[in-house]
UniProtKB/TrEMBL annotation:
Belongs to the PAL/histidase family. InterPro entries: Aromatic_Lyase, Fumarase/histidase_N, HutH, L-Aspartase-like, Phe/His_NH3-lyase_AS. The modification 2,3-didehydroalanine (Ser) is found at S142. It is found in: Cytoplasm. Pathway: Amino-acid degradation; L-histidine degradation into L-glutamate; N-formimidoyl-L-glutamate from L-histidine: step 1/3. Its EC number is 4.3.1.3. Contains an active site 4-methylidene-imidazol-5-one (MIO), which is formed autocatalytically by cyclization and dehydration of residues Ala-Ser-Gly. One of its GO terms (molecular function) is histidine ammonia-lyase activity. This is Histidine ammonia-lyase. There is a cross-link at A141-G143 (5-imidazolinone (Ala-Gly)).
Length: 491
């Protein structure tokens, strides 16, 4: 079990929760804060104080006073009316992350929600009850209103949850578990949907996948270097220390480690004086992508533990302040930045693929790695596919965060579009993984031709692992299954 406190959740723990299905528990001190905050809301209702979202309408309706007898109906109407997401559902791992992140944010004790609701969230995580949440429909300010409303619907026994890859009515699931749906009290609907947890959940999954892919890109590039008799002098520590970027230094050191003991790599002047940039500048380019990952990690771990509700309740209810912590701009920027970092991993990979298949550049390997040039095309169209994916990434990398469309009668007149950025970032990661899968297949073939027995011990391990998944290009075949298998291996 991972204990949630509202302030200490990190990406390593999220990895365990999402991919290893570790359960969660709720910190006692956090629950005390939650109970105090809830008592403050109940006091506000009993005193008939006018506070946004408790006894007023929402957005442009914030000036409309709601009678005490209607406060429950207000929350129910809120969730139903805001559940208007469209498009394909978020993957189940993103839905799971979303539940955890919303739970963790509410545990901070600034939102006035009952502990009973949070305990139900924990039950959902621990019993794999994951809401079906449409991906499209969030502006990324006032929170991820539409996605989080679909999440909240499940608590109410409405909407759908994932079960064995299918969408099952939430009411059916609660019945199977012998539990009743939650009936929302004052402010609880607003507390559930004001937040950035959709973009942040997708962002967490993006980061974890991108980090794994960035490490994989290094050993794939190392195999390509061996297939092309690459020059290792370019990774000399002095070069990278002279520039001073720690990430660049680290990539160079890892590349030397992968290639240690190789009899296929060369030194400058042995075959040529220097390599092309896609080989020689691996530490500089990959290192810059690692800088991006570092930035994204920092912002995600702040946001994962942030209070993003509105209004927020302080001083046992004496201070209730409407603000804008739901605005997703920090994560919108981070996701747009992540798109650039991952797109460049794919871009430089595609250039290495070109060097592997181009007979003018591949140091004597068969043209297009074809077993029978002319009769068989070999890897010719593999490079086309990689080029197409890289080009598509260029359009996806357009920043979502520079766009804004006013909403709610111009009350909400600047929004982040952060959830769009997060979704596009995931598409870029998927494309980049396929590009690197193509490079891995080409590098596997090149090293097979050169002689795997001459490879470095560490890259030879990867070579053998790849051989368990696919064959080198020994004859023309349908390559799509190979790409899919290798992409899965790179996850």
């Amino acid at each position: 079990m991972i204990e949630l406190t509202g302030s200490s959740l990190n990406l390593a723990q999220m990895n365990d929760i999402i991919y290893k299905e570790i359960g969660v528990s709720l910190n006692d001190e956090a629950l005390e804060r939650v109970n105090k905050s809830r008592a403050a809301v109940e006091k506000i209702v009993s005193e008939d104080r006018t506070v946004y979202g408790i006894n007023t309408g929402f957005g442009k309706f914030s000036d409309v006073k709601i009678d005490e007898k209607d406060t429950k109906a207000l929350q129910l109407h809120l969730i139903r009316s805001h559940s208007c997401g469209v498009g394909e559902a978020f993957p189940e791992n993103v839905s799971r992350a979303m539940v955890v992140l919303r739970l963790n944010a509410l545990l901070k004790g600034f939102s006035g929600i009952r502990a009973e609701v949070l305990e139900r969230f924990a039950y959902m995580v621990n019993n794999r009850i994951h809401p079906v949440i449409p991906q499209q429909g969030s502006l990324g300010a006032s929170g991820d209103l539409a996605p989080l409303s679909h999440l909240a619907l499940v608590l109410l026994g409405e909407g759908f949850v994932w079960q064995d890859g299918l969408h099952v009515l939430a009411a059916t699931i609660w019945n199977e578990h012998g539990m009743s749906p939650i009936v929302l009290e004052a402010k609880e609907g607003l507390a559930l949907i004001n937040g950035t947890q959709a973009m942040t959940a997708q962002g967490v999954v993006n980061y974890l996948e991108a980090e794994s892919l960035a490490y994989a890109s290094e050993w794939v590039a190392a195999m390509t270097m061996e297939a092309l008799y690459g020059i290792t002098d370019a990774f000399h520590p002095a070069i990278h220390e002279a520039r001073g970027y720690p990430e660049q230094v680290d990539v160079a050191a890892r590349m030397l480690d992968w290639l240690k003991g190789s009899r296929l790599t060369t030194i400058q002047g042995e075959k040529r004086v220097q390599d092309a940039y896609s080989i020689r500048c691996i530490p500089q380019v990959h290192g810059a992508s690692w800088q991006v990952l570092g930035y994204v990690k920092e912002k995600l771990e702040i946001e994962m533990n942030a209070a993003t509700d509105n209004p927020l309740i302080f001083d046992d209810g004496d201070t209730v302040v409407s603000g804008g912590n739901f605005h997703g701009q920090p994560i919108a920027f981070a996701m747009d930045f992540l798109k650039l970092g991952v797109a460049e991993l794919a871009s430089i990979s595609e250039r290495r693929i070109e060097r592997l298949v181009n007979p003018q550049l591949n140091e004597g390997l068969p043209p297009f790695l074809s077993p029978e040039p002319g009769l068989q095309s070999g890897a010719m169209i593999l490079q086309y596919s990689a080029a197409s994916l890289v080009s598509e990434n260029k359009t996806l990398a357009h920043p979502a965060s520079v766009d804004s469309i006013p909403s709610s009668g111009n009350q909400e007149d600047h929004v982040s579009m952060g959830t769009i950025g997060a979704r596009h970032a995931h598409a870029i990661i998927k494309n980049a993984r396929n590009v690197l899968a193509i490079e891995a297949l080409c590098a596997l073939t090149g090293c097979s031709i050169r002689g795997a027995e001459q490879m470095a011990p560490k890259t030879r391990v990867k070579f053998d692992q790849l051989l368990e998944i696919v064959r080198p290009i020994e004859e023309d075949r349908i390559f799509t299954p190979d790409i899919e298998k290798l992409a899965q291996f790179l996850v």
